[in-house]
Amino acid sequence: MFQKLAKKPAWFRRFVNVWPPFVGAGISLESIADDFTEATVAMRLKFTNTNYVGVHYGGSLYSMCDPFYMLLLMNRIGKGYIVWDKAAEIEFKKPGKGTVRAHFKVDDAMLDDIRQNTANGEKYLPVYDVDVIDEEGDVVATVKKTLYIKKK
């Protein structure tokens, strides 16, 4: 049922914003484009996502970035493809304080690249980066997401 309703960005946003792991971590999907080309995710600093030294817990920083490239691509590329998260890496650059944000963009060039690299039926493992930015505009962390994509 979620997959059917999630095809509409407004419903997708509502579901993501009540998903228990995101609610507990203070993560919210602030915006999503009507065509699933872009999304902005935010996380406030609060008790449930603060580490021992009073800054954002690294696991929560990763969680706010975890599903979005996969979910945006699934909605953009269509049912003829398998899209899964394969691997991830996070590099912490500075302590995260206050509200942090990550912006995801899936453009036509990415889709063309995927279609070209899966045309022969082989799997494709693209790597996409996203920066987590603090309120001052500084990069707190960079997440590298490796996806598994293959034609059905």
UniProtKB/TrEMBL annotation:
Instruction: Tell me the superkingdom of the source.
Output: Bacteria
Supply the Pfam families for this chain.
Answer: DUF4442 (PF14539)
Note the SUPFAM superfamilies from the entry. Answer: Thioesterase/thiol ester dehydrase-isomerase (SSF54637)
Name of the featured protein: DUF4442 domain-containing protein
